[in-house]
Amino acid sequence: MSFLTANALGSLVESAVSTRSLPLGQAVHAQIIKTLESPPPPFISNHLINLYSKLGRLNSAHRLLSLAPARFRSVVTWTALISGAVQNGHFAAGLSLFCNMRRDGIQPNDFTFPCLFKASAFLNSSSVGQQLHALAIKTSLILDVFVGCSALDMYSKTGTRDLADKVFEEMPERNIATWNACISNAVLEGRVIDAVRKFIELLLVGDEHPNSITFCAFLNACADGLYLRLGMQLHGNVIRRGYGVDVSVLNGLIDFYGKCHDVKWEEANIVRMEMKDIGIKKGAGCSWINVKNCVHVFRAKDTSHAKYPEILAMLGKLKRDMKAAGYIPETNLALYDLEEEEKEYEVSYHSEKLALAFGLIAIPPGVPIRITKNLRVCVDCHSAIKFISGIVGREIIVRDNNRFHHFKDGVCSCKDYW
């Protein structure tokens, strides 16, 4: 490959990124070292940093950045590194890299902010998101439709609805992604009427046309609100617009009709048993909570946390207080072959309960407790958290894989339908 030019080598690096081939990328990197002078041109450094960060080799990407002369470090270089970190699930690392970028005197651009807002949303850190939003306003980049949409999504996913609505209303331009974020997040928060109104508003404005994501979000809203007739009207609209063969829309329709016709728990249990018989396993459930910009992850019956003795003591106290307030554990969905006392133990140490107990220990009174779960919150945990919110007088926000649950004074925003 000695005859290749710098441009050709850069194209090969990008091919390695698009095919996710680390061996190819490393081979091209070796040829770059052999062929080009050191340090290589800035665009080659950017390509290499993008390669290693996107393929999960953050240490290699960071080393390349540190070896590059200061004059070669641009917003493109830093954003490639931050983007790679966020895409590979290293959200806290992405935000830390942004701090280093700012110390380097580099201003973010319209590609940097969406990565940062995504990291803030995953970490459930609205405080960090608000600081980023302030910077986006200061640099006028908030006027960019993609930056504005990512800020809207961040606020929605961290449960700060008022700020999300404010961003939406102040956006000078809205694309279909903006409308989709607004409708989807209204469904996540259980604001069915708001989701329906936004969908109708989208149709009335007429600047953008709904796509498969819009239809799926609206079907979720109709299913959650049991708006059978409205959903059936949308079904006709889906067919007219040519989305009748879209897999995601079809799944949305099946879910919609299933919910509106009240599928029973017995049928769901039969499906679960069939899945177990043929070896299909549900992903392991976990919950996480952000305390002082540090993410704490919990799994059911997890004893590994450094504060586990305090967590266990808090759970014991909450259990006594809840029973005194009339709480009865929902054990009907626990494993079938357990005694009742064992079933109570089984549901008492679910991941969201562990995360909540830790939050009550670590987060000062008066501050909302925000928990994220990768699966649907179970019936018992939902009931327990309602009781706990009333007992401790705290606002508790749980985001599961279906929607937001805002618990306050013993009541949940989903009205016990999720």
Description:
- By secondary structure, the chain is of the alpha+beta class.
- It folds into two domains: 6-278, Serine Threonine Protein Phosphatase 5, Tetratricopeptide repeat (Alpha Horseshoe); 286-412, no CATH class.
- It is built from 20 helices and six strands.
- The protein has helices at 6-18, 22-35, 42-54, 58-67, 75-87, 91-103, 112-122, 126-138, 145-157, 161-170, 176-188, 192-205, 212-224, 228-240, 247-260, 265-277, 308-324, 340-348, 351-362, 379-392, and strands spanning 286-291, 294-299, 369-373, 396-399, 404-408, 411-412.
- The chain has a six-stranded mixed sheet with strand order 2-1-3-4-5-6, with helices on one face.
- A hairpin with a 2-residue loop joins strand 5 (404-408) and strand 6 (411-412).
- It is globular.
- Residues 265-272 and 335-342 have low confidence and may be disordered.
- This is DYW domain-containing protein.
- PPR repeats lie at residues 74-108.
- Belongs to the PPR family. PCMP-H subfamily.
- Keywords: Repeat.
- Residues 326-418 form the DYW domain.
Give the quaternary arrangement of the chains.
Answer: single chain
CATH architectural group of the largest domain: Alpha Horseshoe
Biggest sheet, strands in spatial order? 2-1-3-4-5-6
Give the integer mean of the pLDDT values. 84
CATH fold category name of the largest domain: Serine Threonine Protein Phosphatase 5, Tetratricopeptide repeat
| Sheet/helix structural class | alpha+beta
Helix share, percent: 55-70%
Distance between the termini: 58 Å
Q: What is the 3D form?
A: globular
Please tell me how large the radius of gyration is. 25 Å
Overall number of strands: 6
Unreliable residue runs:
265-272, 335-342
PPR repeats: 74-108
Pfam family, one: PPR
InterPro entries: DYW_dom (IPR032867), PPR_At4g14850-like_plant (IPR046960), PPR_rpt (IPR002885), TPR-like_helical_dom_sf (IPR011990)
GO molecular function, one term: RNA binding
